[in-house]
User: What shape does this take?
Amino acid sequence: MLAFSLLALLLLLLVSLGSLSLHWVQQADKYLYDRALPASEAARQLVLSSNALAENAKLLGQSEQESQRQLIGRKLSINSAAMLNAIKVLKALNVNFDLSLEQSASDIISDLSLLGEQVGQRILAGYQLQLQGKALVGASNQSTELLLAELAIVDSGILSKLSLAYPQAVGTEQTSKLLDSLIEQDVDIQERLNRALKIVHNIALMGQVFQSPELDSTVFNSLAKNDSQLTQLGVSLSGLNDPSSDAGVRYFASLTRLSTIIRDPVRAKAFAKQVTILQTLPQSILLQKHHTQLNQIQELQLQALTDKLDALNSAVDSAMRTQRIEADNARSDYLNQLSWSKVSLLLTGLLMLLVIAFVIYKVIYQGIALKLNAATNALAQLSLGNTAVTIDTQGDDELAAMASAIKAFKQKTEHNLKLQAELRDTAEELYEHKQALEAKVEARTLELAEANIQLDKEAKGHVLARDMAEQASQAKSLFLATMSHEIRTPLNGLLGTLTLLGHSNLPPAQRQMLALSQYSGTLLQTVLNDILDFSRLEQSKLANEPRAVDLAQLLDEVAAIMLAGAGLAGLTLVANYKDLPKWVYVDGPKLRQVLFNLLGNAIKFTPEGNVELSVTVARDELAFKVQDSGVGIDASAMKKLFKAYSNEPGKGRDRGTGLGLAISKQLVELMSSAPGNTKSLWVKSEVGQGSCFGFSLPLTVCAGPDRTLQQQAERVNSKQVLVVEDNKINAMVAQGFLAHLGHDSKLATSCEAARKLYTQQTATQYDAIMLDIQLGDGSGISLLEELQQINKQAAHTPPIAAFTAQLQAEDMENYQVKGFDQVLMKPLDMQALSVWLGCAKEPDVIANVEQNHASKLEPCSTELLDDEQLTQDMSYLGKDAVVELFNLYQASSQTHITTLTKAPEDFERVLHALKGSSASMGLSLLATKCRDVEQLKISADEYLQFQHSALCELWRSSLDELSKWLDGQV
Assistant: This one.
């Protein structure tokens, strides 16, 4: 027993020594991997971020466009975040620095922000300077033409007087008078005109220089030295922009006095107008100086920022040198401890081998193996029936107990031998019966086993299929919800921004580009609606929701949007729908979606030619047809035309989702209450001959919308609205819509920003809240609970609207249960927003808007005018501006008609100019006539013979009708 105790003590000592060595190694290893290496990596990230900030700051200083400045600003924000994150890691690792990294980073970020503002001011100043330079150059060119025309008249007068100044012809006295008049008047005027031309020329040069704002002010000084007028007056360019100096007045006096000597009053008035523009030269020089000063300030700010970044890099480099020394020391300690650990483990292994050898011999061999061998031999003899065996039963261990048991077994064996003889006969009888029973049991067991295996497989298959179906359904619902938000969020920004842009006064070319953008956005929205509606139809959650719809207005909207897409594809879109009832009872959004899908497919699969939309009334139904001259559909594609995701690759300009026709068919069946009816959406097509899609809906004519249910925007006082939205585009659209309705707003781009703006003290300042559901730092639903708690404390209950792209029915119900007063969908709708908050315009402005809206509902009695365009121009520009445009158009179009009467060689250019100006004034029929004549590709003589008289008559009728329309406006 003493030997075993000593062995146990020795083993415990060896294990303790190994554990201590392992602990030392782990401590050194922990320092290397938990502190030294992470600190080095964080320092490397900090240096990379600092270098990236320096490079992007330099690029920011070189920015020449606002978009470039914003892009580099976003890069700087990412670099700043990386720098702050590296500093946070270094601080957590307790790395010592010679300066405060947080303060240095804060100073650097502040300098970057200031540099961005300075660059923005410089870009704005440069843009304004270019505009002023263009204005000066334009005015100089016009002034030069007017001065040259007047100079030619003066030169002609001088020549005529010189031709008469002969004594032999007119006498000596008359000759003297002519010469005196020539010297005192004509030559003086000629000299003043030439001097003015030099001044205008120099101003034109300055204007051209202004269009390159990066030039230094020394360029203007060199121009001033070449200006003899400035030299004679003793005026410098710096004196021109001095408010206390009369240099500018003296410099431009020679120009302003010329208006009195120009004989032609039209040219005199035009010249005076151009001189007014030229007199803005001092302001342009001031702006140039301001631009130069901004450049200098920006360079100083950039140099200071570079110095701070260099200081930060130096501090990081110094700290990391110290850190590397500590890491090298820790590594040396780690290697030393590892060597000691190896030696201790080797000694432990040798001692363990000795202990194992001793235990095997003493305990296992002598104490166990020999005794087991004796017991085994005794049992073997007993098993053979030999009871004449002896065994040693001395001792108090388990082997002695086993020997006693063997001895008892010996006695029992002797008794059993007697019984075996008696049982042998009985066993032989039972054996046969046992064999038969075992055979039956074995066969039955095999049958049950096979049945259990089959049932187990089927049960597992059912469970697996059910789990897969449930997971697929959940994944699909999650996908649709996520897709709805992710796609509708940027789509809200797109369509909302285009709506705001449509409210501004745009030239025809930009309106065309706006229409193309709205067409693309509408197609994207249609694709999204197809996908979501397909899921709702699968779940039987989509229902027909008919309402009173202005059918002509709906068709006009569809045709206007798809017209842009047809024009982009080089196609002609023809819309034929006349003699239709005004108000019908139908599900307008679903009908619009079906028409968008059919027209979009027609445009997509038509390389050239035209697409025609026709709507007629047949019996008690509305019949819709979309005919194209496209590629057509073959028989194999016709079989799977209305199946989901079965679009044909390479047949059109793009493939699409493959859901459009499948969704359209089911929507038509839903609206016509004819599920499974194969004739609900029909098609006729031949390869290479185009296709024709059509469907019919029940016709239910109604008197109009129910006025008791129709919501109208109330006239209210201006409200202060808190907008909580993290997407900048969506926020800009929402605030733009609110401003258009006359309301003020404040923006919070996160939950944290909303908490700072909306407190118990400031809650009463806000009259309403627009809350986005999905924010970057939290959920809008969670934030709603906090806002409601603040409202209880402040005894203030402003209406709160959920601003979301989630359009599922269960989501809408959830928002209402959570306590939202209103749900505003993305894309944001101006009408829904005005109904919720009301319109805060002045009473007279509201009346004007309502009158303009009423005029849209009552089109002109003639097709000569585009009433919608004229109404918009009147609403946004005012009557005075529209009348002024009418007067200008009347004069310019008279010139065009007069020119066309002479049948010039460039009559096509004049005709094109008349078409553009007529379209801008809303004279739609005249513009269409000009376009048709253009497309005839006829000569000038053919035009004069066959087309000119009809065009002149249409022009006069259009002017008369437009004049009457303007007289009827209040």
User: Anything to note?
Assistant: The longest strand covers residues 610-618. Residues 228-235, 650-657, 843-862 have pLDDT under 50 and may be disordered. The chain has 29 helices and 14 strands. Residues 213 and 817 are 60 Å apart (CA to CA).
